[in-house]
Design goal:
Residues 156-171 have a biased composition (Low complexity). One of its GO terms (cellular component) is elongator holoenzyme complex. One of its GO terms (biological process) is tRNA wobble base 5-methoxycarbonylmethyl-2-thiouridinylation. The chain has helices at 6-22, 27-36, 41-50, 54-63, 70-112, 114-118, 142-145, 158-184, 192-223, 227-252, 258-278, 283-295. It is built from 12 helices and no strands. The longest helix has 43 residues, at 70-112. The two termini are 58 Å apart. The chain is mainly α and 313 residues long.
């Protein structure tokens, strides 16, 4: 390896640290670069605070004889972290308060008026009570079999292949369009309930990943003598976890009881067999998959528990 000059080495280290901060959001690794290679201890401590490493930031400042910067750097980092966490928990709370009642409302509407909910005739449908049009003519006619054929192509079969190709393309286009509708979960569509249920599931998973961050933040606040702030953030987290537990019962309550699991477990198998027999195509497949997911068994996500600090109890 060709040795680099000290200036080039510092330039490379600074460039790497900047990339870690701006693109990767890896504040801890960037802090190590600033502390060990660029010898910028205050900036390294600030980056450690942004990475929720408040104890490491305090230790770094103490090792380099900069204890007087602890209130300025660590306390400011704690205040910023608490503000961001408070906003995040408020977003969790508002999303749950908006989506869970909407899911309950949609399920009541589905039970009372399935015709308006699914957009089909429940008296003509199968086990799911939905009439999914297939757009397939069962009785061939001259208009359907000889359309577009001339006296030169009616016996070659070329036009038939072209028609099948065009139909396949149209089916794929319709399926992609319907899958986009399903992914967007627009309000008022049949895909809204499935979208909201998946959204609540993702929110609970996000809350679970936030529990450890809150525990670290509470411990750091207590070390700096900010007892009231620590109690406030812990209480806010407990409220969000309680909302998640309640929504887990309301949204995924169908799988809570053992009897419900056995009953719901048998229905999806029947739906799958029916789907294989009917073999929906195009947008009908996305529609049928959405109905199966909406009416099928939903596995309830687990909700983590917050380890309450002994200093606050």
């Amino acid at each position: 390896m060709v040795p680099l000059s000290e200036e080039k080495l510092k330039a490379h280290a600074l460039e790497l640290a900047t990339t870690l901060i701006e693109e990767n959001k890896d504040y801890v690794s960037a802090a190590h670069i600033h502390a060990e290679h660029l010898h910028d201890v205050p900036l390294a401590a600030r980056l450690l605070c942004r990475g929720s490493r408040f104890a490491d930031a305090t230790r770094l400042l103490a090792l380099h004889g900069k204890q007087n910067l602890v209130p300025e750097i660590v306390d400011t980092g704690l205040a910023d972290a608490m503000g961001s966490m408070t906003d995040l928990l408020a977003d969790f709370r508002s999303q749950l308060n908006a989506q869970v009642p909407r899911i309950v409302e949609l399920r009541v509407r589905r039970a009372t008026d399935p015709l308006a909910y699914f957009g089909g005739d429940p008296t003509m449908g199968g086990d799911m009570g939905v009439d999914i049009p297939d757009n397939v003519s069962l009785a061939p006619t001259d208009a359907s079999t000889l359309a577009g054929r001339s006296m030169f192509t009616r016996y070659t079969g070329k036009t038939g292949k072209t028609g099948k190709t065009n139909m396949t393309r149209q089916t794929s286009k319709t399926r992609r369009k319907e899958e986009r509708k399903r992914a967007s979960g627009k309000k008022g569509t049949v895909y809204e309930e499935e979208y909201l249920v998946n959204s609540v599931r993702r929110l609970i998973e996000r809350v679970n990943s936030t529990v450890s961050e809150v525990e670290t933040l509470v411990s750091a606040l207590l070390r700096r003598g900010m007892r009231e702030r620590a109690a406030a953030i812990e209480k806010a987290m407990q409220e969000v976890l309680k909302l998640c537990t309640d929504s887990r019962v309301e949204v995924f309550g169908a799988v809570a009881s053992p009897g419900g699991e056995q009953t719901d477990g048998a229905e999806p198998e029947t739906n799958v067999n029916t789907a294989e027999e009917v073999s929906p195509r195009g947008g009908q497949r996305a529609f049928a998959d959405s109905i199966a997911a909406t009416l099928g068994v939903r596995e309830a996500p687990a909700v983590k528990e917050l380890k309450q600090s002994a200093l606050l109890n």
